[in-house]
Amino acid sequence: MALTARNVVCLVCLFLTLTLSFADDEHGADAVSYDKETFQSAITQKKHFVMFFAPWCGHCKRLGPTWNNLAQVFNNEESPVTIAKVDCTLDTALCADHDVTGYPTLKFFQKKADDFQRYKGNRDLDSLQKFVEEQVAKPEETGEAPPVPDEEEKEQVVQLTDDDFEESIAEGVHFIKFYAPWCGHCKRLAPTWEDLAKSFADNKQVSVSKVDCTVSTGLCTSQSIKGYPTLVLFNNGEKVDQYQGGRSHEDLKSYVAKKMQELSGSFGEAEEAVPEQQGEEGVMDLTDNNFEDVISDGLTFVKFFAPWCGHCKRLAPTWEDLGAANAEKEVTIARVDCTQQQTTCNGQSIRGYPTLVVFQNGVRLDDYKGQRTLEGLQEYVDGFLGHTEL
After folding, report:
1. Known catalytic residue: 60?
2. How many other CB atoms sit within 10 Å of the CB of residue 21?
3. Please, are residues 333 and 364 in contact by the beta-carbon 8 Å criterion?
4. Which of 60, 213, 309, 345 is catalytic?
5. How far lies 325's CA from each of 119, 160, 205, 379, 384, in Å?
6. Residues 361-379: b if buried by 16+ CB within 10 A, e if exposed
7. Which of 18, 19, 27 is closest to 61 using CA atoms?
8. Which of 88, 186, 213, 309 is catalytic?
9. Number of neighbouring beta carbons within 10 Å of residue 239
10. Which residue(s) pair with 105 in the sheet?
11. Do 344 and 286 meet the contact criterion of CB atoms below 8 Å apart?
12. What range does the record give for the signal peptide (predicted)?
């Protein structure tokens, strides 16, 4: 059958659409794509880190997977920044407006088209993520005076900074919340943290404190704070433990009471200890303290995740079902929160979320790359059961 002119045009349009779609995915499928119209409206609503690129650019193609990983980390509802991209072969005027003369050009915008920082550092995930966190930490120029804490908070929760941190924690027990004002989890924890401070207001041996990591950036960097909130217990200036339990008032209060008894024995009878967190049914929470011990014996399937990661949130109920389905089998279904267990995640070179890894007797066997359905995951696990000897 002969092709008509109209059919030829349709085929060309389809080819171009598929080509552009592939090019878009190749440069970060999880990054938000903007054109001139959408860029102008979005840039004033939220902070943005934007890659201006050309599909034919080799440097852009090589950066694409890393840019996608960066988008997976930050592109979620609670994040204060959006990882985005602009195809300069399609939006030449927009790229010209922003003086883009080479590819890729990376710019961080502070809610204004003319308030930006051009990125010129290394293009690995760690360097890019550190740059984003530094830019996010910069206060917005609103012209308003910073809010003054109310008197009740001044009396109870101790605000520590770069200047007084070391001196303040040199003696006694200090339970410290490292936070960022924009963090949703931090905002929800704030009233509970105040209540915790009130509970120990009369106890001179313990102090409930907080550190704003958008202000005391040097301090938080030195303490290896990677996620918010991070809750750390110090004793006489030394880090004792990073808290991993529930965030209710009773959970936190019991934890402090237990640690006080362990450290000094002077708190009196400790309240009932907080049970070890098991997370979802059949899913074991792994920490820097127990990770090596747990994976050293038998088969362990581990989900490395971040609470703000959208893909992780979508996988969570399926992972719970997987844990329940394998509760009686010779496999441990586990998870690691990489915002809390940085040592473990860094040691395993985790660069994106979620990362799903199988360990056998302490050896990393394989990274799962298949479909994230219960059926796909179960079939994968069953493939290891029955022949798990190395």
Report:
1. yes
2. 11
3. no
4. 60
5. 47, 46, 46, 12, 15
6. eeeeeeebeeeeeeeebee
7. 27
8. 186
9. 13
10. 52
11. yes
12. 1-23
pLDDT digits (tens, 9 = 90+) for 50-92: 999 999 988 899 999 999 999 998 988 878 899 999 999 998 8
Q: Give the containing element (helix H, strand E) for 234.
A: strand 230-235
Residue 226 structure tokens = 């990677």
Query: Which H/E stretch holds residue 317?
Result: helix 310-325
268 pLDDT more than 90: no
Burial class for 255, CB neighbours closer than 10 Å (0-12, 13-18, 19+): buried
Q: How far, in Å, CA of 334 to CA of 96, rounded? A: 49
The per-residue pLDDT for 11 is 52
- Residue 90, token pair as written in the block: 């399609």
Helices of type H across 138-283: 151-156, 165-168, 184-199, 217-222, 249-263
* Structure confidence at residue 280 (pLDDT): 47
* Burial call 297-336: b when 16+ CB within 10 Å, e when fewer: eebbbbbbbbbbbbbbeebbebbbbbbeebeeeebbbbbb
Mean pLDDT of 191-216: 87
pLDDT in tens, 334-384: 999 988 898 999 899 988 889 999 999 999 999 999 999 999 999 999 998
Which residue among 10, 13, 95, 183 is the active-site one? 183
pLDDT at 135 over 60: yes
Cβ contacts of residue 210 below 8 Å, gap of 6+? 157, 158, 159, 160, 176, 177, 178, 179, 193
- 286 compared with 7, residue with greater pLDDT: 286
> For residue 310, what are the CA distances in angstroms to 74, 197, 284, 315, 317?
9, 33, 21, 9, 13
Most confident of 142-151, 270-279, 304-313, 375-384: 375-384
- Annotated active-site residue 220? The verdict is no
Q: Is residue 10 flagged as an active site residue?
A: no
Q: Is residue 186 annotated as a catalytic residue, yes or no?
A: yes
